[in-house]
Write a structure and sequence with these properties.
0% strand, mainly alpha, globular, 7 helices
Length: 169
C-alpha cells in the first residue's frame, strides 16, 4: 500500500514517514500505559498524552533549532532554523491525533475508559505497522522486507500493549 493508494497528500506522507511520527506514536503509547495505570481514566490519559506530546514537540523543535544553528555557525538564521525544525518535528503532532481522538471519545463517555485506552494502543500499533510497511514500500517492491518492517515497527507498540496487560492484570 502506497501513499497514493491511501490518498495521502505528498506533504502529509512526508510528515508521517518521519522518525518523529514513529517516535510520537511510541511516546503516546508509553504515556497511555503510564497514565492508564492504577485505574486511570481516558480524561487523565488524554491530558497526560496531549501535554507530553506538546512538551516533547517543543523540546524537539528547540533542540533542532539549536542544532541547525550550530551546524551552520548561525548562518542558517534563527527563523529559518526554527521553521525547518518545526516542519521536521510535525510528524510527532500529526501522529498523535488518532489516539487523542480515541481518548477524547473515552473522556466524553462515548466509549468506556478501558475500551478507549485499549483502542488507542491498538490503533497506535496498527499505525506503526502501516508506517513500517509504507516506508519500505517506497524503496522495495518485495513483500518480505515490507512485512518485516511492518512487524518490527508494530512490535514497539506491541511491547507497550504487553506492558499494559502486565501492569493491569
Amino acid at each position: 500500500m502506497t501513499d497514493e493508494q491511501l490518498h495521502i497528500t505528498p506533504r502529509v506522507g512526508r510528515i508521517l514517514m518521519s522518525e518523529e511520527a514513529i517516535y510520537g506514536l511510541i511516546l503516546v503509547s508509553g504515556m497511555i500505559v503510564v497514565s492508564g495505570s492504577a485505574q486511570g481514566t481516558s480524561w487523565e490519559a488524554l491530558v497526560t498524552v496531549a501535554v507530553t506530546v506538546i512538551v516533547f514537540f517543543a523540546a524537539h523543535v528547540f533542540a533542532g533549532t539549536l542544532g541547525r544553528l550550530a551546524a551552520t555557525d548561525g548562518q542558517a538564521g534563527l527563523r529559518a532554523s526554527l521553521r525547518a525544525s518545526a516542519h521536521q518535528s510535525g510528524g510527532m503532532l500529526l501522529a498523535s491525533v488518532p489516539p487523542l481522538v480515541i481518548l477524547l471519545l473515552g473522556a466524553t463517555r462515548v466509549v468506556d475508559d478501558s475500551s478507549a485506552l485499549w483502542a488507542a494502543l491498538i490503533v497506535n500499533t496498527l499505525l506503526l505497522g502501516a508506517l513500517g510497511w509504507i516506508a519500505v514500500a517506497r524503496w522495495s517492491t518485495h513483500w518480505l522486507p515490507r512485512i518485516l518492517s511492518a512487524i518490527i515497527t508494530a512490535a514497539f507498540g506491541g511491547v507497550l500493549i504487553l506492558l499494559k496487560a502486565v501492569i493491569h492484570h
